[in-house]
Amino acid sequence: MASTYPVHLVLVGPPGAGKGTQAAQLESQFGLKQISSGDLFRENLKNQTELGELARTYIDRGELVPDNVTIAMVEDRIQRPDCAKGVIFDGFPRTLEQASALDEMLALQDSEIQLAPALVVSDDVIIDRMTGRRVCRNCGAVYHMCYNPPKAEGVCDICGGELYQRSDDLPETVRNRLFVYYKQTSPLIGYYYAKGLLVRVNADQPIGAVSREMVAAVRTVIDK
Ligand code: ADP
Ligand code: ADP
Ligand code: ZN
Fold first, then answer.
1. How far apart are CA 81 and CA 64, in angstroms?
2. Cα of 180 to ligand 1 centre, how many Å?
3. Cβ distance 52 to 76 under 8 Å?
């Protein structure tokens, strides 16, 4: 059944599964807005806001930022006009508490989640993806040293910005983030399954093959 806009998608999956990479492609293909809670926190870190300083302590340990803070940040962000056609939620929700808060905030806009694609990928692949990830300091574009390298080493293809390795992508933190995922975030799989919204995508393939599966899944709810 094709929906009319706004369309809201939640990308579920462990850190490093490829949510951000896929969200960016869906954004340009379907005209939806990618909202990444991790990117919002990193913007706040860069701008040294109070929220950024609070988030830093959690992010550095690979723990989740408290629900009340995270929910308020996302709720504020989705009021902006660039979200009018719909949102691809990337990295949010990450707890059952956040998931029900999201349902409530969308209900206030007479909207709801139409689909929750889950990126399924093995643990060793995840570690490899996170440790090889590089991010543009200026525009946030995501690369991988082996699987999605920039044209010139250390330089963003899009804006020429400098690429860096996130401090939470160092091996010690990566293992804790995976642990936190299984404990606190993986119950979302059941949450969206019970609502009939879950669709599993094999994320253990090259970026283009994952994209094709994602686009086919999203086409079941967007007629485009
Ligand atoms: P990844 O893309 O590897 O999944 P993110 O950029 O989404 O990582 O998140 C980086 C960090 O920001 C998380 O480890 C966590 O500390 C914090 N964070 C991001 N989103 C959330 C959220 N929805 N709830 C709580 N903390 C979050
Ligand atoms: P997430 O948002 O789920 O944390 P990202 O989209 O940031 O994941 O991807 C994590 C890392 O893996 C990045 O370096 C990205 O370039 C790379 N990557 C994403 N998808 C794939 C894929 N299908 N195959 C190989 N590498 C990938
Ligand atoms: Zn850039």
1. 28
2. 10
3. no
Query: How many Cα atoms sit within 13 Å of 4 on the Cβ side?
Result: 1
pLDDT tens digits, 39-55: 999 999 999 999 999 99
What pLDDT sits at residue 185? 98
The pLDDT of residue 212 is above 80: yes
User: Which residues on adjacent β-strands are paired with residue 116?
Assistant: 198
User: Looking at ligand 1, which residue's alpha carbon is closest to its atom 15?
Assistant: 64
CA 50 to chain centre: 23
User: Which of 89, 134, 148, 163 has most ligand 2 atoms within 8 Å of its beta carbon, as the pocket-test mutant?
Assistant: 148
> Alpha-carbon distance 114 to 122, whole Å?
26
Residue type, 78: I
Pocket test for ligand 1, best of 12, 43, 59 (most atoms within 8 A of CB): 59
Please report which ligand is nearest the Cα atom of 120.
2
Domain annotation for the chain: domains and CATH numbers: 7-222 (3.40.50.300)
CA distance 17 to 130: 8
What integer pLDDT is reported at residue 4 of this predicted model?
Answer: 75
If you write DSSP's letter for every residue of 157-208 in order, what string do you get? TTT-PBEE--GGGSHHHHHHHHHHIIIIITHHHHHHHHTT-EEEEE-SS-HH
